[in-house]
Amino acid sequence: MDSSSPQDDSPEQRAWTPRHNGHVSKVTASPTTSFAESKRSPSAIALRAFLLGVTLGASLTLTVVLLQPPLNPLWRAPCFLAALSTFHLLEFYITARYNPTAATLSAFLLTGNGYAYNVAHSLALLECTLRNYVAPRYYTDWLRLQPFNAFLPADGGARIAWLTLGLTLLLGGQGVRTLAMAQAGTNFNHLVQSKKKHGHVLVTHGIYRWLRHPSYFGFFWWGLGTQVVMGNLICLVGYAVVLWRFFSLRIESRHSPVTQVSQQSCSCIPAHGNLTNPPVSG
Fold it and tell me: Alpha-carbon distance 202 to 188, whole Å?
């Protein structure tokens, strides 16, 4: 028999069994190993990164096109998609760069945030679209109700000020979260850990000296920034309430007796400073 041909052993376990020096070396597939490999599938990771990259490029291009005179207010929708694509790409890239053992498909955070996450972003796009096609005066009307506008020039000045504020929150929030993940390194995990893993240490340097939960802090203000840029009043309030509640519960769970041992797993408690993530207790 040809020693290089596969051997037909059992229906449950057909494997490649080459012979080396007269000995059979049997290679079998473990269900556990197969599952682990599927979460790290290079083709699946590459496909997601490619689609996010295409979405980012197309969204930025469309944003620039819609900003050309005569300006189309719907530029905010593709701008929002560009911010989302950048966020998810950076989530995986920073994880792969500074904590490669955790660089699985879930690190993109495309499906791990739950149903409400996707619904929230869909509603944001819906409000933006309806506002510009069904009630185009809505944007200027709700801005004029803000006390902040009393200190601004009429109309155009208020819009520029709110847009500047939104972009500042968006870019600043993204920067803080990305920096927090990078500085935490292998101590960062997207999932709250119930047990302390070997090698985890308490991070007390860099941004962790000043912020108690910088990754949460960054995401909270990033989320609000996206809605200010889009001019979504309803979703701005909704995002604030939902994110505040989500991070309050998450921080509380991280400080329960079961998880105190691994407080540094996602965003670590600083040795100095008393700033917290979004303004929530915990």
Answer: 10
